[in-house]
């Protein structure tokens, strides 16, 4: 339901690198993401956008501050519990899709389901097929990912992100590796997901994608420089 918090962080600090040359990548960042919202995180290269995304996605741990997902603090979860929470509640789409190139499209989409372990083989195959149909790849579900075009691979990655029906999808430059026409297709797919109530956090340099977000977070030197609603 819109208005409910899906994901939030408070006073996030993150240092990268060795002690003598470490970089202060995030400086006291706080952010609230409501169910069904769309946030575009923009700013120059090196400002901390991707670092923030990885911390929100429970792929990295802050040096200070806290993260909550579905109103539950994850600060004290053990690694196994953290991985399960991430797999249950968060979907990821990256600029480089990170598909298993010797797996079929269907098998790639099944990977998060296997990790969660809540469905049998038939159920996983049926859900993967349905998700690929939803991204217009129903006729290519058995094709190896290395034989798919860049746009098709990104659509497989979107289907994979939806495998466990996440609360939030985090996308790091989801159109960055695509031509303009394919990028528009991916934007349309993301908008369809959002219309179903999935919250989206999009790190992007793509003005067309940023303009479609209802909130734009501008980062500079590891801090949120501005947080504004779309006009």
Biggest sheet record: 6 strands, mixed
Beta fraction = 25-35%
Beta-strand segment tally: 10
Mean pLDDT: 88
Number of discrete helical segments: 7
The amount of helix comes to 25-40%
Structural class: alpha/beta
Low-confidence regions:
none
Listing every helix as H and every strand as E from the N terminus to the C terminus, the arrangement reads EEEHEEHEHHHEHEHEE
- The radius of gyration computed from the alpha-carbon positions, rounded to a whole number of angstroms, is 17 Å
Strand order of the largest sheet: 6-7-8-3-9-10
Alpha-carbon distance between the two ends: 23 Å
Shape: globular
Give an account of the 3D structure.
- Helices cover 34% and strands 28% of the residues.
- With 231 residues, it is α/β, with parallel strands linked by helices.
- The strands form 2 sheets. A 6-stranded mixed sheet has the order 6-7-8-3-9-10, sandwiched between helices. The protein has a 4-stranded antiparallel sheet with strand order 2-1-4-5, with helices on one face.
- A hairpin with a 6-residue loop joins β1 and β2 (23-34).
- α3 (105-116) packs across α4 (121-134), α3 (105-116) packs parallel to α5 and α4 (121-134) crosses α5.
- The longest helix has 16 residues, at 180-195.
């Amino acid at each position: 339901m819109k208005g409910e918090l899906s994901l939030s962080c408070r006073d996030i600090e993150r240092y990268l690198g060795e002690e003598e040359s470490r970089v202060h990548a995030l400086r006291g960042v706080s952010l609230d993401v409501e169910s069904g919202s769309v946030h575009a995180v923009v700013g120059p290269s090196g400002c901390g956008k991707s670092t923030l995304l990885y911390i929100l996605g429970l792929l990295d741990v802050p040096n200070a501050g806290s993260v909550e997902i579905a109103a539950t603090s994850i600060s004290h979860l053990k690694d196994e519990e953290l991985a399960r929470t991430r797999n249950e509640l968060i979907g990821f789409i990256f600029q480089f899709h990170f598909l298993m190139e010797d797996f079929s499209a269907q098998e790639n989409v099944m990977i998060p389901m296997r990790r969660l372990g809540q469905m049998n083989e038939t159920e996983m195959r049926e859900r993967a097929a349905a998700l690929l149909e939803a991204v217009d790849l129903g006729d290519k579900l058995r094709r190896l990912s290395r034989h798919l075009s860049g746009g098709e691979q990104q659509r497989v990655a979107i289907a994979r992100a939806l495998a466990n029906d996440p609360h939030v999808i985090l996308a790091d430059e989801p159109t960055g590796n695509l031509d303009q026409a394919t990028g528009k297709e991916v934007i349309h797919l993301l908008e369809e997901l959002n219309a179903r109530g999935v919250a989206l956090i999009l790190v992007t340099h793509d003005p067309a994608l940023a303009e479609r977000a209802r909130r734009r977070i501008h980062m500079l030197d590891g801090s949120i420089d501005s947080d504004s609603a779309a006009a």
